[in-house]
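Example 3.
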Amino acid sequence: MREVAITGVGAVTALGDLDATFAALLEGRSGIGGPGPFPGKGPVAAIEGGPHLTSALALRAARDALGDSQPPRMGVVGGSTSGDMIVGEQEYEAWFRGGPTGPRFLWSQLCDRPAEILARTLGATGPRLTLSTACASGASAVGVGADWVRSGRCDAVLAFGADALCQLTVHGFGSLQAMSPEGCRPFDLARTGLSLGEGAGALLLEDLQSARRRGATVLALVTGYGTAADAWHATAPHPEGRGARDAIRAALGDLPPERVGYVNAHGTGTKHNDEMEGAVLAEELPAAAVSSIKGAIGHTLGAAGAIELAVTVKALVEGVLPPNVGVRDPAVPVLQEPVRRHVEHAISVNFAFGGTNAAVRLTSVHV
Amino acid sequence: MNVEAAAARYAPQGRVALGFAKGKMGGDPVYAAVLARMPAEGTLLDVGCGEGYLLALAAEAHPGLRLVGLDHDEGRLGSAKQALTDRAPALTSEDARTATLPQADAIACLDVLHYQPADQQDELIAKLAGALRPGGQLWIRDAAADAGWRSTLTTWSERFAVAVGRHRGDGVFLRPRGELPAAMAACGLRVESVDCSEGTPFANVLHVGHAP
């Protein structure tokens, strides 16, 4: 069986690029600020210079992940919930007010648009796929990309998750009364909901042997991917976290759970997710230090899994675990300050609306 | 407490080092509790000083204080040396149990004791108490075995590494709450225990021993 190496990572969040984001996380600094482009629904983590196209954010993260690498026949797997929908919303509004329609209206409806832009701009001629599993999209993209490399479908895959803010998501979460009026505080006893964010994360995945042959720096390995459905409810997680547990166990494979030293949690700051997730993590991964980074970058939806995996790669490489920014009175044990620790195995989890659960296991090459 | 200035000392070591320093100094309430009690002059000895965060905070607060640090980890000590070059601190990678200690006006021993068995903890406490000048203070913080230690270790973390076999120590040796202040009192110190957990559910108690 081929092994999957991560040879590049990139991200863009309200805190900046991946390096700036990681440094700010260690400081305990949050990028959740004012109302963003759609006021009235609580503070969001907007990226400077917006509003953005999801495609543009994806491209920034992808370029950082690729660096100077140009793997031949590279595959692209992208995850997004709304693609470039903000353009369609603007077009629709213009048409509604009596203006003309144009081709922007068409391409902005294609959820595959960011992956198409990436493939075209980066010259990626391998297989291409866009998947949309709500807030698990980014993690699913990395998991599927790793499966492609492992199975030999291609030698290199650029996996990314990306989402910019748009009316659908901001007003959608607003109508669910899921948005915090003060800013997201994952796993806090007094948490009041999530904060939306925008961003993108990207990972370059390669067959370990080919990566070594070309002299690439191997940052970490993708050693497990599990996904499972709750088959339960459109927005609420299964109360006992059935699908979440199955996904984690599948990502573990034969690895004893106590060997996982760090979990980058989904931790949205909503009552239901954090309650379910706290119980699941305590039971399934009892030895792991836990933190959610959504108190610093908001919930970036389809980007979340990819950004969180990029941050987890940084944590493995630097030997530093980021704290659970925003928590004051933790309901469950989470990291309240940064920690120097080289862990061998880490898992990043995402539990999405619609009951799609995803867990990706990374293994350090530094321990 | 000037976290910004103290953390800025780590900026030349990179963004991660700077972020970590800021996060640690700003996030751990023990620093403020200790800084509030720190003498302005004399000698501060930090046993298990790591990257020297407490020494860096002390350097910003008290220009006249002599800084001494011990740590077994040469990498972390190297970071402390770089950050504190202007203050020429005495930093050595010695084991406090065997090292010759200077006479000090304040001694910090934060999250260190549990790396050794109870009898050795008591010996070290006695040794530290013996190094205090008259009127000096000994600050000890450690997790207690009967105060949700698993949670505490997960939050305070690097100590947890021992439990999963990633640290040089032999294990985690936690003692029931009350044993550490008792050991300090047995050395002739007047002990007060200060809660600095700031509303977290985890025990975070600083024991302050005053030498007569």
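Chain A is about 35% helix and 20% strand. The two ends of chain A are 22 Å apart (CA to CA).
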